[in-house]
Amino acid sequence: QVQLVESGGGLVQAGGSLRLSCAASGRTFSSYAMGWFRQAPGKEREFVAAISWSGDSTYYADSVKGRFTISRDNAKKMGYLQMNSLKPEDTAVYYCARGRYNIPTKSNEYDYWGQGTQVTVSS
Fold first, then answer.
1. Residue 12, SS3?
2. Which residues lie closer than 8 Å to 12 by C-beta, 6 or more apart?
3. pLDDT tens, N- to C-terminus, the chain (123 residues)
4. Residues 6+ apart with CB under 8 A from 41
């Protein structure tokens, strides 16, 4: 079945940048939406951003709007999350997922999930 693997996480100073990658394999990736979620310790999983299958539509959580950019390369079966102006409150495990709708924003609208990559932002 579909496998999603996140990479690119790490430790970064506040105000810095990171780019997360999501590599897909198995069943087709390009015909599905793709999204990013995050989960901080003691908190529930939170929607971050989503992109349609064609890449022509995107949607962002208010907390990251203007700082994060979601993109995809269907030929490479890759998804990306460019994170700029990072804040300590962005610290979390970030997950990519495959969505079943045009711009899914709910976790139950995604059918496959990666294992996550840790992002830690220091003050």
1. strand
2. 18, 86, 119, 120, 121, 122
3. 889 999 999 999 999 999 999 999 987 767 899 999 999 999 999 999 999 998 999 999 999 999 999 999 999 999 999 999 999 999 999 999 999 888 989 999 999 999 999 999 999
4. none
Rounded to whole angstroms, what are the CA distances from 92 to 20, 32, 120? 13, 25, 7
Q: Return the SS3 of 71.
A: strand
Q: 5 - beta bridge partners?
A: 23
Going across the sheet that includes 78-83, the strands are 3-7, 18-25, 78-83, 68-73
Residue among 6, 89, 108, 112 at smallest CA distance from 43: 89
Tokens 């087709």, residue located = 28
What values do phi and psi take at 90, rounded to 5?
-80, -10
